[in-house]
Structure formats: C-alpha cells, structure tokens
Amino acid sequence: MKNAIGRDIPAHISGINNIRLYEGAGVYKPEKSGAGKKLRVGKPHTNKILQSIDEAIEKTGLKDGQTISFHHHLRNGDYVMKMVVERIAAKGIKNITIAASSLSPCHDFLIDYIKDGTVTALESSGLRGQLGKYLTRHPEALQKPTIIRSHGGRARAIEAGELHIDVAFMAAPTCDRQGNATGRIGKSAFGSMGYAMIDAAYADNVVLITDNLVDEPVHPYSIPQTQVDYIVPVEEIGDPAGIASGAIRITKSPTQLLIAKYAAEVMEKTGILKEGFSMQLGSGGASLAAAKFIREKMEAQNITGSFGIGGVTGIFSEMLKDGLFKACYDAQTFDTTAVQSLAENPNHIEISASFYANPWNAGPIVNDLDVVILSATEVDLDFNVNVITDSNGVCMGASGGHSDTAAGAALTIIVMPLIRGRLPMIRDHVQNVVTPGNDVDVIITERGIAINPKRTDLIEKLSNSGLPIMKIEKLQQMAYDFVGKPDEVQLSDADKDIVAVVEYRDGSILDVIRKPLV
Amino acid sequence: MKNAIGRDIPAHISGINNIRLYEGAGVYKPEKSGAGKKLRVGKPHTNKILQSIDEAIEKTGLKDGQTISFHHHLRNGDYVMKMVVERIAAKGIKNITIAASSLSPCHDFLIDYIKDGTVTALESSGLRGQLGKYLTRHPEALQKPTIIRSHGGRARAIEAGELHIDVAFMAAPTCDRQGNATGRIGKSAFGSMGYAMIDAAYADNVVLITDNLVDEPVHPYSIPQTQVDYIVPVEEIGDPAGIASGAIRITKSPTQLLIAKYAAEVMEKTGILKEGFSMQLGSGGASLAAAKFIREKMEAQNITGSFGIGGVTGIFSEMLKDGLFKACYDAQTFDTTAVQSLAENPNHIEISASFYANPWNAGPIVNDLDVVILSATEVDLDFNVNVITDSNGVCMGASGGHSDTAAGAALTIIVMPLIRGRLPMIRDHVQNVVTPGNDVDVIITERGIAINPKRTDLIEKLSNSGLPIMKIEKLQQMAYDFVGKPDEVQLSDADKDIVAVVEYRDGSILDVIRKPLV
C-alpha cells in the first residue's frame, strides 16, 4: 500500500496493530476518547519509599509481556534504565517492551538484554550508537519493528491509549517523600521533565528513582505526588558529564555559519522576523548558529520576540535573559546554562511533551510557532526529510520534535550542508521520511536555497532578495557536479527486514525503515 | 437501606444512577479506569477568540439535556454563570444540568431559570442563600435531587467519569490568546484556580471567559492552552467586592477565642504540634482563630511546620511569609492578602482540587495532614458532622473540603459553640451527615471537649491535661441543662421530598437531605 507521500507500507507488519496510512497533516480526526487513568485509592499517611528497585518491581507486579517506560532527560548520562533492566532480568521476567522517550549510546547495554529475551520490543524517538547499528543489522532480534515516534506523537499515543505503560520508571533529580519531583535541582539536575510528565500522568504504576530525596516540600514540581506510587532512593541516577553538556557554543564552521546567516536572512526577507514573532531552533550546529544572526537583526531593528520553544540551550536562554523574548517554553533542557536559567528565570517555562507538540489536544505550543529552523541528515526532491538513518541506512538519529514543529510552524526552514563526506545530501528519495515535504518550506545549504514550490508566497518574497534561490533539482545537480551521483543504498524489501516503523505524529504510518542489503 | 453509619438511603432515587452505599473511608476500591479526555485536533494558528457567549454556545454545540460547569473562585462576586445561563435561556435550550464547584447567594438568579425549565439539575458542593431556601422547600422544582460533593469528591467524580461535563465555562482573570490562564493577576484576580483545573482538564469543550485578555504569554498558568477551545472576552467577570474579602481578621468573640485556644492546646498536648507538622484550618471563626494560638506556641517552642493547606487566608499566608511553615498548598484563596501572597511568594503553591483531596489518585495532599481544625453546624453523639443545613433543616452551607481533610488528617478537630441562638449543637442524630464520625477525633466547645471513644490514644494523652475533657453525652447534657432539649425538626420521609443527595468523597451515598415538614 502507498500512503499520501507515496511510501510503500506493507498491509501487515508483524507486531504492529491497526495500521493506518499517513494521509497528510491534520487529516485524520480521532472520534474516540483518550485513555482513562488507572484509578487508585490513596491511603492516608502512606509511606511510598521503597528499599530497592527489586521491591519496586515486586510492588508494581511487573510481569512478562508488559511495557515499561523511561524518559531521556538524563540523555547519555542515564544510569536508571540499566539499573532497572538488570533487576528485571535477574528476576527472570521476559518479553518486556521498553517505551523510552528516546535512547542514547549509554543504552547500548540493551543489546545483551535483547539477546537474552528480557527485552523484545522498543518504542522510542530514535535509535543511536551500537544499539542502532545492531538493530539495523538484526531486526529479527526483536519480536517486532521498533516504533519511532516524534515527541508530540509519543505524548499523543500515551494520552490516546495507543501506548499503554504498565510501569513508568522515572528518574527524578529531586523529590520529596510524597513524590513531588523536579529536575531543576539536585546533583543530577537536568532541567525540564517535559517528557516524563506524560508517562507519570498515564502509567498504571509510577516509580520515581531519585538520588536526592528531601524532607521539605518540593516545588515547583514537574511530577505531582498524586501520580507517584513508589519512590526508590539510589546513590546516583546519572553521570553529570553525560546528562547536560557545558554551555553549548556557536559553531566556528564557516559553512554552518553561512547557512545560519542565510536562515536569518530568509526570516527577515519573508517578513517573519517582526515584533512579537516566535521561533524554535533545532539542536544542530547551523540551526543553533542562526541565533547569532537573528539576534543581531533583532537588536539592530529593536525587535522583541514573543516566545521561543526548546530543546533549550544556553544560547536561547541568554536571549531570554537579555529580553529579546518574553518567554521560553522548555520541554527539554540541553546544557548547564539552560538548566540554570530554568531554575532561576521565571520566564523560562517548563512544559510537558503534550503542551509542546501533541497534535490531539486543543493547541500545543508548536501550533503557534512562526518559524522553526531544523537540521536533516538528508532531504529529497519532494522536500521530505530524513533524520534517523545515515547515508548507509544505519539508524543513528531520532525523530524528536522535527515533524511536530514542521507541522506547527508557519515557516519551516531546513538547514544542512549540500555535501557531507563527499556525499550529496539531496536525494531523489530519502531512505525514510520523518517529516513530510508538505510541512517543509525552505531548504538552505551553503550553495543555494530551495523553496517548496507550493509556497508561491515565499518564492515571490525571496526571488529578488539577493539570496541564492534556486529549484531543488538545480541544487541537487550542483552537488552531483561536485561529487557525482552516489549509488543508492540497497534496502531489503522483505517484511521480516523492517527495522522500524516511523509513525507520523497522528499515529499513522509515515514510513518503514528497512535493513540495508550490504 | 441503611449505610455503614446507619443512615436510611432509598434503594432508588429518581435521577440518581448506580446508588452505592457508603461503606467507610477507603473501603470501596474502584476497578475501572478513569474518564478519557475528548481528543481534539489542534489546528495550527487557530484563533480561539470569540465575539460573544452566544457564539461560544453555538461553537460548542451545547444542547438540551447537557451538563455545563462553573468554578466558584469568584465566590459571591461571580458574574459569569448568570451571563452564560441568560444566553442559554435566550436560545431556548432547556434541561441543563449545572455542575458548579460551589454556589453562593449571587446565584439566587438560578431560581428563575429553574422555574422556566432551563436548568433542571444541580451538582454542587452546597446550596446557600435564597436558592438553598427555595430548593429546600421545593425539591420538585428540579428533576432530581441536587448532588452534593466534597471538593475532593467532585474532582474524583470528574476524573472517574461519573460527572461528565459537556461544556466548562471557566472565568479567567487573565489569559493569553492561546488560552493560558491564571487567577493571580487581573482586575478580577481571585488567586488559585484549583477547582477550575479539573473541569478544564476533562470537559468536552472548554470556554474561558475573561476580562483581561493579554498578548504576552501568561505564566505560570493554571489552565494550559492545550485544554482551551475558545476564549470570550467580556467587560467584567465579577464584582471585586464579592470575589475576595479584604484581609480576614481573627475573631474578637471571647467564646470563639476560648475554643481556638483549646484547639491549640489539644494539638500541643497530643504531640501533634512538633517540628515539621502540617495543618489545615477551616474558614470558620474559631478554626481561623486557632492560628493565633498555634503561632504563639510555635514561636515560643521554636517550631517550624512543614506545610499548610488551604482555603488560604491572609492569616496563614502571613505565617508562611514569616517562615513558620515551609510551604502552603492552595486550592482556593480567600482574601486579598492571600491573593497577593500567591502572586508573590514562591512557597505559596497553587494546587488543583485533585491534588488537594481526590481520594482516587496516588496521594492527595490531605493524606499527609497531621491536623485539621474544622467547623460544624451541628454534630451528634456518633461524632457525625453536618455543615449543610441549619437548625431548621434549610440548606445554607457547603460540604467543601470537610470530609476530605477529616479523612486525611491524623487528627481531626471540630470546633463549634455548644449552643447557638439558644439551640444545643450536639444532637442525638445530625439532620444529615457530611463527615462521618469515624473520621472525627475531637469536638471542642467553649464548655468542654469530647474525644471520639475509638481514639483511646488521645483519651490517654489528654486525660490529665487540665483540659475540660468529657464524654460527648455529658457535653450534650450540659447544653440541655442550659437551654433544654429542643424539638426535632420533622423531615418528610417521602422520596419525592429528597432535596439533595450527599455523596461521600468516594462517590458512595452518605446521606440524603430531606424537606422539613414545616
């Protein structure tokens, strides 16, 4: 079957129920109600503190075949998933689905527990590191393809009851004895708990794992005590070096700086860069670097923006501090400067993944975005974007908020080098689609800028702008002229070789990721 | 049928489905999941602002037989319910259920719309004013008895799907164009939006009605944009004089001061008044006055409490400001001093009604209370408490958080005068029960203190305390010795004369309120 962007989707995929093909942004209208929360009877003066993860596994009644969840706010410094999966394996519990908001190289240990049958399915924003390589080569190691969801799509899936979590094991940098938890403070502080909020609100059992249990009431809290069943104190929930990087700096790469400069000029010349505008910058080098040029223009023209959204870095939190924006909505805090900003600046607002990007509520904040600047691993002539697999077809990235912000923003800009490692980045067809071309407006490279033909308004505004505007086919040819047309990576078309299913944010199937043949 | 406290409950009550008898606190365990939220498709760059209440009624598709909800944070200054009900009536929509978190004398206008069939059912925390009198005398004016719920019970009923709201019309003192709303600021600021939060989270349609629509992002927000379908700007949502009183002062009544002093002494002598203790004070004169004596003892003994819960008054927010407590959880803000405290003091924490008192989540904050001091209109020999009807059997009060805090607190103290207007306040049986005697530990009057016989620990601690401890029967007799035994108000036993059904916080039927015969 072909979906609305012409991707071939098998009618049946082992382990994936209710396949619904992607029809376009906002086309499918859910008629059902969302998931109901499990009702509990909160007993007065209960002690929620447990002695060990083993005790938590026992009290929650976790058993074969259930789904457990983790958030990825500890990023590559996460100790919690390993702690928990080790104890589950030690108890001989098998056939567990891990629904993580994302996975990092620190989760490579999962390979061992996939091999021994403890873990038999994954749902995540992406696959990286050795785990990504392993599953790309051995999709049969899991009982079903990994389900890839955007951050908004995951919030939607949980709230709609499509992703049911039996036990959420949530790392908490600080919590009180009732379970009110925050990521703002504590030795493992990571900032916003935006992804964790949804798991805590909907899981049948919620276990907080903390290395800073305090007696005094914790507030503001990101997870309220009303959602917390148990608390397990441990020595350390993560490695600070892996949790948040030091202050992220603007790139020094001349290519990325040129691309970033173009992005700011596109914003200016399309009229988006005006009083009260809102924006999000992706975490790639060129998107972050755009902040430098946007800032210069805002200061020169005395423009104050309304709000920014993040994945927040110090680069943005400095703009907030300096009054260039009124507010910053934060579902995930990337560096130590931004973590401090969230703790100190009242205009730095922590939000849940649902507030950020869930397409099935009355209005996530991405819906109010004027502009988003995003990266890509490759794009194609239809403006489709891949951010999951590398040029060899190996899973190494994550969906994140890419398709969410692209769908919400009035102007979606993709920034990327035209050529990476002697490979052209504009393909006839991307290996797999994370963001449909319909939601992408402008692709900016160091050698030229392509505008989605459906955006005739932008073509008109930019045609005499002095910017190197050209058809995407011409931009592709320019790359070919430099490095030649590359061979296509050959992908298996066997259904058993489907590595992952890429859900669009509304739960429909946008694409499948297939195993490369070589 | 008789329930666990021996109250006679008809097996069938017209209009009340699924009658479940009260079995005791925490006995009934729900097996079902809660309500699922209605899923929406939030369209990017939608304009939520409507021109009028009429337009909101049309857009939400409100029709005959549906349920609409209101919060009572505007208290006796509320303009919003009248605005909305007038327009519903003008459109000829009939048979509406009004589910308000409470009702005040400013809602007496409802009598007209009950008479003309616009409104045919009420669900509320209580009934007051002319409306209370009218419905006590004319229960047949509605199609079914009014359902009385505690604040926690209402949150539970909504979250459990027992109270389904078609359209929530929520007054918002300030909101932005996306619908992020707060009660902290604006000309009609009332403080916490704790009751409104639950309606907004679960109603099929959410309409904000505001007299302060602002362009800049509103934060912290009590209601998030993700829950808001429409916004109607109006001139005024309420009368400031009725919304919040000026700073509430400690009573000067010697009787109430004596009762309050006893309450503080009971706390001290039972060992509750110690480092890190938590408390809630009801809004009656003697309970609020207890703060004065508790404060004196805390200062003298250098005790710092953990947290307080409110219904918050300036009396408590001053204690918070002065460092006597670490935090204050606020579901409802009573006076202007407390409104200012919520806006300015970061330790003054806004909470939802569910966080406050919903018995069916993983732990509302009432479950962590050491002590609560509450008022009563009358009590009985079984320690049952009535706070709804006056001595003539007329509805004039509200359930509020009475039974919620009594169930949660380790020590529940009832303060009340032994005699009011020459009537003794300790009855053989209260006219109706809002809080079961099982959850009541101590009853304090100006002439004596009765301890629930099941609390042998308290009897032991207080027996040689010098306080006037006595059996409740003796306290009752003391009142009779002064003013004689009063005649019982004769109540109709006809099922058609049931004015209201009092739900316990878990949704079971605790009692029914019957029409007085004279």
TrEMBL record, chains A, B:
Keywords: Cytoplasm, Lyase, Transferase. The keyword Cell cycle does not apply. It catalyses: citrate + acetyl-CoA = (3S)-citryl-CoA + acetate; citrate = oxaloacetate + acetate. It comes from the Bacteria. Coiled coil: none annotated. GO terms for biological process: acetyl-CoA metabolic process. Pfam families: CitF. One of its GO terms (cellular component) is ATP-independent citrate lyase complex. It is found in: Cytoplasm. Its EC number is 2.8.3.10, 4.1.3.6. GO terms for molecular function: citrate (pro-3S)-lyase activity; citrate CoA-transferase activity. The keyword Nucleotide-binding does not apply. PANTHER family: CITRATE LYASE ALPHA CHAIN. This is Citrate lyase alpha chain. It comes from Pectinatus cerevisiiphilus.
